[in-house]
Amino acid sequence: MHPFSFTKVSDTREALDAGRRGGRYIAGGTTLVDLMRETVERPETLVDITGLPLREVSVTERGGLRVGALVRMAEAATHPKVRTLYPVISQALELSASAQLRNMATIGGNIMQRTRCTYFRDVTAACNKREPGSGCAARVGFNRAHAILGTSDQCVATHPSDVAVAFAALDATVHLLGPEGERHVPFLDFLLKPGSTPHREQALQRGELITAVEIPAHPRPLKSGYLKVRDRQSYEFALTSAAVALHVRGGVIREAKAAAGGVGTVPWKLSTVERHLIGERPSEALWAEAARHAADGAHPLEHNGFKVELLRRTVERQLRIVGGAK
Questions:
Q1: CATH of domain 1-53
Q2: What is the pTM of this model?
Q3: Strand order in 223-229's β-sheet?
Q4: What is the CA radius of gyration of the chain?
Q5: Is CATH 3.30.390.50 what the domain over 223-323 is classified as, yes or no?
Q6: 9, 52, 70, 195: least surrounded by Cβ within 10 Å?
Q7: Confidence of residue 326 (pLDDT cuts 50, 70, 90)
Q8: CA distance 248 to 271
Q9: CA 53, CA 24: separation in Å to the nearest integer?
Q10: Mean of the pLDDT values across residues 300-311?
Q11: 9-45 per-position pLDDT tens digit
């Protein structure tokens, strides 16, 4: 680990001042500290923001849900409003990590975490995300766990967050505070696909701070859930996952939200699947037909072609679990 300075702030003004000077924000530190130990990350200054008042979970005036950036994953997962309104979020959080990590890690830190690609974390390997222009060892190396959607010639690493998949499905918004004031960024625009700049992973401006994630109000009743497929049931990252939310009224699907994890360079919104569901009546045939589009546009690599069919089956299964059939 390289030497660094450490400062603790007590209000947002202090935090923004430190961030503008190049400080890196830290709360739970469950990802950043690991990367510092591996010398992947080498910040000169860490800014402890755990004293900021960003720990509230609240229902918005329009009936949505606002989760403060410093709410612990465990707190969010067990919060009555989260469990009642959006069980997909609770389930994604509980499947994310061990209990010890969930007790430390924050919502803001979770969506800011960097990829678990082994080549990114091996400082001897070529990685455009870590060192732009050095190449992508994963494209010609062992790439079983890598992305099949949203990839580029520069990067094929997956985004590791589970709850980010739920946020993507539910069309969440990220609230930011920076030197220029407040901004609200749609979640689907906040995490960036690699393109030609894989080292730029979020739509953050210098010194900006995540203050909350807001889920808009959705029609009630809204049934939702999260399914994660992995190599083992204990703490492990997803090979594929599916976040699904459905509003059914009068026997017809009036609103459908779906996204996938473990297969994309960012949480992957399944817009085509959603379109196939809206206006239809739940049935086994509908789930199968809609799920066939889950992997549209996929570009599998040498070792991860199995993810195409696995993704389709995962989405079909979760549609059946959430929506049932007649």
A1: 3.30.43.10
A2: 0.96
A3: 223-229, 240-249, 252-261, 268-269
A4: 19
A5: yes
A6: 195
A7: low
A8: 18
A9: 18
A10: 98
A11: 999 999 999 999 989 999 988 889 999 999 999 999 9
